[in-house]
Amino acid sequence: MSASSEFKEIFSLLKKLSEAFGISGYEDEIRSIIIDEVKSVADEVKVDRLGNVIAVKKGSKGSLKVLWDAHMDEIGFFVKHIDDKGFIYLSPVGGWWDLILPGQRVRILTDKGNIVYGVIGTKPPHLLRPEEREKIIPIDKLFVDIGASSKKEVEDLGIRVGSPVDLDRQAIELLGDKATGKAFDDRAGVVAILQAFKSIDPVETNVYFVAAAQEEVGLKGARVAAYSISPDVALAVDVTTANDVPGGDPKEKVAEVGKGPTITVADGRSASGLITHPKLLKLIIETAKKNSIPYQLSVMSGGTTDGAIIALTKEGVPTATLSIPTRYIHSPVEVLSLKDLANTAKLIELTTKNITREWYEKEILGH
Ligand code: CO
Ligand code: ZN
After folding, report:
1. Whether residue 82 sits in one domain with residue 63
2. Which of 100, 133, 167 is the last residue of a domain?
3. Which domain holds residue 337?
4. How many A from CA of 186 to the centre of ligand 2?
5. What is the pLDDT of residues 317-330, one digit of tens each?
6. What angle, rounded to 10 degrees, do the helices at 338-354 and 8-19 form?
7. Alpha carbon of 181 to ligand 2 centroid (Å)
8. Scanning 124, 140, 223, 298, which has the fewest C-beta atoms within 10 Å of its C-beta?
9. Residues 19 and 136 placed together within one structural domain of the fold
10. CA 75 to ligand 2 center in whole angstroms
């Protein structure tokens, strides 16, 4: 079986989720796709007031609650200003590197629920002065051209200040088991928990599937979802920065694409990060070893995930973060390995099966 047919199903799900519109706070399209995917296998599905999708597979009576989280929002923009000629200026939602934006095609979601395409224009090299060639153009100087010739023409389409915008990019397969596209952060994580949720048969645990809203603007959805679920244990799934590329410093290596899911030991540094509960970390490593799932350990200095906020819910939740190593995060050409993605799903499922009442009382509560 060739690599591409082996991962056909997982790629088509990733493609569907990746190409959906869903910047932070405007997750309607991605949310409805996810609900369609989980509803046939869940005992219950609901959407809370911040827009999180929460699905449950019930375990036996009195069993533990295990929360699986991945965020469904993607970074994007809001329309900030429309000038008299119909050019549109953007304000970022989440962390962009301005360098990658010129030359991109964007999608604007109108008040009428339609998509309008545009391009982030650039000055042709012919007209660049030598000093301009050296500079990154800041986002507030960039503008979107939708082909309009007046402000009124733009407004008549239902585009106004605050209209949400994302990048227009199709996901495709690369060589071997690799794929590229936008918003793999964190639609790849959603695919991992979806696959695990479809295949797990919960006996010992209640499994709570959370596709969280608004991670990219401060871990917001996960905070309220964890509060309402009040889980005993949580596993957050996100992508992590693989810098296994030319020019990467091996000392700063966080993860490598194709070497298996990354288990975070610590991230974010100090107050804002997560220190994975050591007993949970041990359980995940043992599970990976026993089932011959390759894995990587990571200690990251910057950046964190929903896991950090979930761990601080109520009286505290033992939490771990599993990540899919991904290159070029927060760009429209993120690259990951579908095999790593499949192994992440497997590791979540098998670890959850090992989170028994007996393990919890002994290892977490210390009885
Ligand atoms: Co991100
Ligand atoms: Zn993320």
Report:
1. no
2. 167
3. 3-74+182-364
4. 5
5. 999 999 999 999 99
6. 100
7. 14
8. 124
9. no
10. 9
SS (H, E, C) the chain: CCHHHHCHHHHHHHHHHHHCCCECCCCHHHHHHHHHHHCCCCCEEEECCCCCEEEEECCCCCCEEEEEEEECCECEEEEEEECCCCCEEEEEECCCCHHHCCCCEEEEECCCCCEEEEEECCCCHHHCCHHHHCCCCCHHHCEEECCCCCHHHHHHCCCCCCCEEEECCCCEECCCCEEEECCHHHHHHHHHHHHHHHHCCCCCEEEEEEEECCCCCCCHHHHHHHHHHCCCEEEEEEEEEECCCCCCCHHHCCECCCCCCEEEEECCCHHHCCECCHHHHHHHHHHHHHCCCCCEEEECCCCCCHHHHHCCCCCCCCEEEEEEEEECCCCCCEEEEHHHHHHHHHHHHHHHHHCCHHHHHHHHCCC
Q: Quick: pLDDT tens for 136-186.
A: 889 999 999 999 999 999 999 999 999 999 999 999 999 999 999 999 999
- Domain count along the chain: 2
Residues 60 and 125 in one domain: no
From the CA of 280, how far away is ligand 1's center (Å)? 24
What is the CATH number for 205? 3.40.630.10
Could you give the CA distance from residue 122 to residue 99 in angstroms, rounded to a whole number?
12
Distance 208 CA to ligand 1 centre (A): 22
Active site residues: 215
Q: Please report which confidence band the pLDDT of residue 2 belongs to, taking 50, 70 and 90 as the band edges.
A: low
Average pLDDT, rounded, for the chain:
94
CATH assignment of the domain containing 100: 2.40.30.40
Is 175 within a domain?
Answer: no
Q: Is the pLDDT of residue 4 over 90?
A: no
Q: Examine the domain organization and report whether 246 and 298 are in the same domain.
A: yes
Residue 202 has pLDDT above 90, yes or no: no
Whether 41 is in a domain gets the answer yes
Residue 12 lies in a domain: yes
Tokens at residue 99, please?
């360098």
Q: Which of 217, 220, 213, 116 is nearest to 165 (CA)?
A: 116
Q: Ligand 1 centroid to 130 CA: how many Å?
A: 34
